[in-house]
């Protein structure tokens, strides 16, 4: 199978991409994508270099500024990139760093003991993908500068002035290339989240983020003397801690520096975040496995010794980790990551190092704090009972074949096409909207599942209550994947899961409850792009028997600008889906040719921040929720209060 081609294919057709041309030709290989995510990755690469200086003990302040022209300047007070000639390359070391791939002080040459920038492509990749990049170095009383454009040297490294002998450091300014990136506008909030995380992970470093684009510049400073202990406090701010302490373990083993901070709260979801040399490892790895082993082993051992459980009983790791927030951060000289994306640690020695340090120090802590140990174990025993009840309930919700007699939920109007790739399911609030949707839909490919009112807030419920909830049970059965540890995406019955609610406060709340459930129990549905929000129109405009629909105030204004504003205009503001008849609902919200869908996306790199957002919005604490609403009210549009 193939297509014919008359093009010649010989030795000369094999391309050799020299220098940084390869990066410009295939940027996704080096920074993941050319979308907003890849754009922000450029900043992290330069900041990572400054953080490496901090980890080595030479830098304590990093300033990141988004300039008015959307270029970014990163200033650190480290030693400054070396300016001497690199004899192997015959050019100054700084030029090697910015123009040659896989060059840097991170490959066993004694430059850095530990380093986040594993592949040594950071600075040169940023240079290759920038319209221009300028580096200024303060070193031994002199100020050096070099400029590049799209990776090419504009002028040789030169001395442009003198400075105090004590002043050292590096300043890098770069402007991302609009020929490469689909999006070239930096998002202050995205940078804020990542830089805050970096500051938590590097005790005592100060990171200042400034945005000079608004009329009133915005500035945030991140400086945490408590390091990851303060990180746990931050992650738990919307929750009620079970005990006041942050349990902290720290030590060196086999040349690996291990830091672990943890605290239980009265909630039911576990939040485990792991890092290697300050790089987040969303898929965990050997360091996280070592921690989990140590935790399970130590608590069971303590519980048996103190007769809190029988000698024959064993608490599972899941039971002990219910409501636990933990940061596992290690510094290792030669990290081996699985995959180019650096999302999972593979070093076997990391497992033993974390297990050893946590087992030893956690047992000492529990013996010294018997009240805390008792609280955690009581919660774990309750979790164990709930898990057993949930197992029984779960067995009933597992979707069995027709022979086993388990049918789909009665209120589901399923589609006739059995190929999941062609099918989609609308989750609709209320019977009236459900009725309109059932009439409007394309029966071959669109299924409708109406929900009665608001589903259970899973942020405040244990597994047994979740499995017993009729609305959640209906969704689990309809999707076919199972949830939690039973989840299997290959059994998904619909390619698109579309949440369709009213465009008002209640509708927004129902959407958030549904997203909370999917995020906590079926996150892969979101990660793999199966979850969408329908966008029903806000307005219907009728004039001279013609009809227009507007999905925002701006769109309505644009339509009125075209058709004119006069007394013949009949404008209807839709308060809910139930106000539309089936034909209107199809035309505006369900017709694949005309509808507007918003895909729900999830960024692995900011999973800790996502957890904080869900907990803040859906947890018990009122104050953090009020602060969140006040901080984000400016971004909300078209919400009826």
UniProtKB/TrEMBL annotation:
Toprim domain mapped to chain residues: 423-537
Cofactor: Mg(2+); Mn(2+); Ca(2+)
Top-level enzyme category: isomerase
Matches recorded under CDD domains: HATPase_GyrB-like (cd16928), TopoII_Trans_DNA_gyrase (cd00822), TOPRIM_TopoIIA_GyrB (cd03366)
EC number: 5.6.2.2
PANTHER family recorded: DNA GYRASE SUBUNIT B, MITOCHONDRIAL, DNA GYRASE/TOPOISOMERASE SUBUNIT B
Protein name as catalogued: DNA gyrase subunit B
Gene source species: Hominisplanchenecus faecis
Gene behind the chain: gyrB
